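2024-03-11 09:14:02 INFO worker-7 job=invfold-0412 stage=load source=structure_tokens
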């Protein structure tokens, strides 16, 4: 029986960047990223750690992934610590709609 390799996944939140591949999986806290580098087919990051090495991620759309990562990190840094409001709200929830 042959096992198929798992897909490589790269996920973003306002707090973490997640990576999972065939041989490795890890996450990087957004507040630990000190630099980004755009590539035509992905982007690179540098962590805030004494022994950190640059890490690069190859994507189908390098410019989009780079901009997404940079903007999420900037959003996480500009958000007050105790602020729990979501960045996105449901489309059917307007400020003037009655609460049910």
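2024-03-11 09:14:09 INFO worker-7 stage=emit residues=100
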């Amino acid at each position: 029986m042959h096992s198929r390799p798992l897909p490589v996944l790269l996920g973003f939140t306002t707090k973490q960047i997640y990576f999972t591949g065939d041989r490795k999986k890890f996450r990087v806290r957004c507040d630990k990223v000190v630099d980004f580098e755009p590539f035509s087919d992905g982007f690179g990051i540098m962590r805030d750690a004494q022994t950190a090495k640059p890490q690069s991620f190859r994507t189908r759309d390098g410019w989009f992934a780079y901009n997404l990562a940079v903007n999420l990190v900037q959003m996480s840094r500009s958000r007050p610590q105790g602020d729990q409001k979501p960045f996105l709200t449901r489309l059917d929830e307007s400020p003037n709609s009655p609460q049910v």
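2024-03-11 09:14:09 INFO worker-7 stage=report msg="The mean pLDDT is 78."
2024-03-11 09:14:10 INFO worker-7 job finished
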